[in-house]
Amino acid sequence: MSLRNLVVLTWISIFYFSRAGPAASVRIYYEVNHSKNIVQAVSQKFKIPLGVSHFPKELRIVPRKYVYGVGNLVFQAEHSSGGHFAAHECPEELVGDLRKMFGKKGPAYGVVPGKDGY
Hints:
Layout lengths: L2 H15 L9 H7 L4 H8 L4 E5 L9 H5 L4 E6 L7 H4 L1 H12 L16
Parallel strand pairs: 1-2
């Protein structure tokens, strides 16, 4: 199995087998659409470390001030290719970001109690 297929299957599994099920991927859209102040509402929700990977062909480019105003932002990465389906389009870059964020010297290392990195 290729790395690309493995990444796609992993993302599908995260959403499908989580407690929220397939609805897990749409919860953030509900939160944003039902909020009077998007930045304030989102920043109040994120108490855990947050990482953001920016891809130039994303369907909707979020203004950087929104990203900076969101809770506990500990990691950001800019990429020269990829878009909304980055896990399929450029999985190596996305996996690299996850390793940088959660790896032993990453800003979110140890965020899960009892777990020792990836």
